[in-house]
Amino acid sequence: ALRLSYLRSGGRDPAVLDQLLHLQLEATVLEKGTAGLGRGRRMGTAAPQPAPEAAPAVPAEPPGTGTHGLDAALLAVELENRRLEDELLALKVRRERRADAGSRAAQRHTEELAQLQAEVGMLRCHAEQTKPWLHRPVLPPPAAPSLPP
User: Fold this and answer.
1) Given 3-state DSSP classes, what are the helix, strand and coil percentages for the chain, each rounded to the nearest 5?
2) Domain ranges of the chain
């Protein structure tokens, strides 16, 4: 859960990821070691039992070899897959929100355009109705006399 949380929050430091994987391997070994001891008990009612002395807390082989290495690699791939799925879902949600916002803006612009066209039509109609009543503009007399040819 800690590794998954780190990956989901954008963590990408290889050293931290390796350390988290190592801790996860230790936890897996401890769980497998104590699973046989506490089969009849309910989880959470008894104190956690330490691992037996014979079973090491850290696997003997490096994390890249054997079944533990394969399990760890598979788990790492699964965690990365989940992180990528979450990222993909977030991108899809953002794209849908943008599309919705774009269609709402387009609809609003269309409504505004229709309203403006209606206003222009009304103004034209009003101008045509009042046109006969308009008088010719009276121009002021020329300031200087005309020049001789």
Assistant:
1) 65, 0, 35
2) 1-34+70-130
